[in-house]
Backbone:
């Protein structure tokens, strides 16, 4: 977003004909990897029916795809935002919003979020919350050189069975160490199994590097990540909570059988017919799991460690069965409802509703 919007400029309410070509949308997003990735797709979808601009002063609608606690500072830094219809795109992964978020979302006219799980959380604190799912897509290309690189850094053995988890160790929601512990407990019954844990370059993962656990700290580009998914035999996420779960939908795109906690935003696209879902209990966040804005007043899921062990064993021994192949086929079918056409239609419909709303007219009239 450009600072030109700080100046007051003449403004005309857009006139709608049969399309939204006259509507100008400014879409600002943080550089955080998942934010930037999702924002690129949404910008493309909006551009198909409206004009995407970078200058706030030219915009009719401004989308803020940032952590919600930054909304206040953004409005203070760019005064023109006070005279625009503001949409906050955000997620949260626990039962209650932190107090800072509750105050921050009052600065936007509405919230867009990607799952019904998040809609319910934000809906308790904001009157206008809209469901806008992610587009499930990924360029799955990788070269032979990418495949060779991945096989070299994991010392690939074609006789082994590889479980994969992509995570960041600082993000305790991911429950990474619980997976490593469950894998080690069942390792004697899975003699050819290996667990690949892809962490961030700055993560200290020394305590995870045990027998048959491969920790990758290397930076991998998109093609190399595709090769990593391709090389793996299955994907696992015993998470406490997800707003959506991009690594899970990526695994399904790449046709990997997937184990995940049957709770939170990933249930938008995962079910017992297309995945191996873990039993769980919902409880207050334990002291040792608190971090960032997540505290003991909030709840999330604690997946059953016993069920996780059972699913690891089941997938290891049943990987080539019709049952598992059917789940993968079902996943490939089910994620198609989150294609660009479907999500684009949802966004176009909502932008049309915004521009035709009384609230929008009131805001632009005072601009």
Residues:
């Amino acid at each position: 977003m450009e600072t030109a919007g700080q100046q007051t400029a003449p403004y005309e309410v857009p006139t709608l004909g049969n399309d939204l070509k006259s509507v100008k949308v400014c879409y600002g997003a943080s550089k955080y990897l998942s934010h930037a990735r999702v924002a690129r797709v949404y910008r493309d979808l909006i551009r198909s029916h409206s004009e995407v601009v970078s200058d706030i002063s030219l915009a009719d609608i401004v989308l803020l795809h940032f952590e919600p606690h930054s909304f206040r500072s953004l409005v203070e830094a760019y005064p023109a935002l006070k005279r625009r219809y503001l949409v906050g795109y955000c997620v949260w992964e626990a039962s209650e919003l932190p107090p800072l978020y509750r105050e921050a979302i009052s600065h936007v006219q509405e919230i867009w979020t990607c799952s019904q799980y998040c809609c319910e959380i934000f809906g308790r604190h904001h009157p206008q919350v809209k469901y806008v799912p992610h587009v499930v897509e990924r360029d799955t290309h990788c070269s032979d050189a990418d495949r060779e690189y991945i096989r070299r850094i994991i010392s690939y053995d074609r006789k082994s069975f590889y479980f994969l988890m992509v995570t960041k160790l600082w993000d305790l929601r991911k429950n990474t160490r619980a997976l490593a512990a469950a894998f080690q407990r069942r390792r004697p019954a899975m003699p050819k199994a290996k667990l690949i844990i892809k962490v961030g370059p700055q993560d200290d993962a020394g305590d995870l590097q045990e027998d048959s656990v491969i920790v990758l700290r290397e930076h991998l580009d998109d093609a190399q990540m595709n090769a990593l998914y391709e090389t793996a035999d299955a994907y696992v996420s015993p998470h406490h909570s997800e707003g959506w779960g991009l690594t899970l939908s990526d695994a399904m795109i790449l046709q990997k059988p997937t184990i995940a906690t049957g709770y939170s935003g990933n249930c938008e696209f995962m079910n017992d017919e297309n995945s191996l879902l873990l039993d769980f209990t919902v409880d207050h966040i334990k002291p040792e799991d608190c971090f960032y804005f997540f505290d003991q007043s909030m709840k999330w899921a604690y997946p059953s460690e016993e069920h996780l062990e059972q699913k690891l064993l089941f997938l290891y021994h049943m990987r080539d069965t019709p049952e598992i192949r059917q789940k993968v086929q079902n996943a490939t079918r089910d994620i198609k409802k989150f294609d660009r056409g479907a999500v684009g239609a949802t966004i176009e419909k909502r932008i049309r509703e915004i521009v035709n709303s009384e609230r929008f007219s009131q805001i632009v009239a005072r601009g």
Notes: The chain has a mean pLDDT of 93. DSSP finds twelve helices and 14 strands in the chain. The first helix runs from residue 33 to 47. The CA atoms of residues 172 and 288 lie 9 Å apart.
